[in-house]
Design a protein that fits this description.
The structure is a homodimer of 116-residue chains. With 116 residues, chain A is mostly helical. Chain A is built from five helices and three strands, in the order H-H-E-H-H-E-E-H. A three-stranded antiparallel beta sheet of chain A has the order 1-3-2. In chain A, strand 2 and strand 3 form a beta hairpin. Chain A is globular. The first copy, chain A, binds a DNA duplex (20 and 20 nucleotides) through helix 4.
DNA sequence: CAGCATCCTTATCGATACTG
DNA sequence: CAGTATCGATAAGGATGCTG
């Protein structure tokens, strides 16, 4: 027995984690961090189009879910490093695989959109 | 040579496909259809919390992207079957893998949320 | 059954300004 | 640098009612 979790159920706690990960910026942030620890500004540059506000919120949600680790060096000027936790790495790897799959099928998507 | 596509770029056409797939319902619908062709009502029951309206929009976006195939039997009462296309199957498989990863790490997420 | 049209509420997000 | 606070526009989404 096991896995009492089911993202297809609206009220399962895994649904919230699912939405943090697959939300507008969650997966992209995780994908960026999959390459290694990065500072706030580096993540912002890596993820095209994200604002300070959204990045901050996204990182906080992922940190609360234990998928991202936040390391504040407490210096001035501030120096904070974000990285994936072991659990976060597993999720990030799956996200990266999904990104690659999307890239792979893009030619098909483009011709479908064109009204192939 | 190639992969001119990059979801990390805000203006890449793959970003739109990415958002259709990782949007609130996209991945869940794809995940449901990964099990085989389903009728509209069956998908709605499979994906907890989705409304007619959102399901309809989501299916249309995925169909436009060539990831989902819509087969209207033209009968009365209506009988419409949705299925993944070959490209959609690849994406759906990646989505299912992500779902499973999320389920796997849920115990970790739960304890992180509890303030482990 | 498989949807679409309409309305309306809510949540998301971006811009801007500010702080230690 | 690494954020937070506030505001306002916009879009997402739910409820309801209707159709062939």
């Amino acid at each position: 027995m096991e896995q009492p979790f089911d993202v297809f159920s609206a009220n399962c706690p895994s649904r919230a984690a699912w939405e943090h990960v697959t939300g507008r910026w969650g997966a992209l942030v995780l994908g960026a961090l999959a390459d290694g620890p990065m500072r706030f500004g580096a993540v912002r540059r890596a993820v095209g189009g994200v604002s300070d506000r959204m990045l901050s919120q996204t990182l906080q949600a992922l940190e609360r879910d234990g998928l991202v680790h936040r390391e504040d060096h407490g210096t001035n000027p501030p120096h904070v490093e974000y990285s994936v936790t072991p659990a976060g790495r597993r999720v990030a790897d799956s996200v990266v695989a999904l990104v690659e799959t999307i890239h792979d099928v893009m030619p098909t998507v483009m011709s479908a959109r064109a009204g192939a």
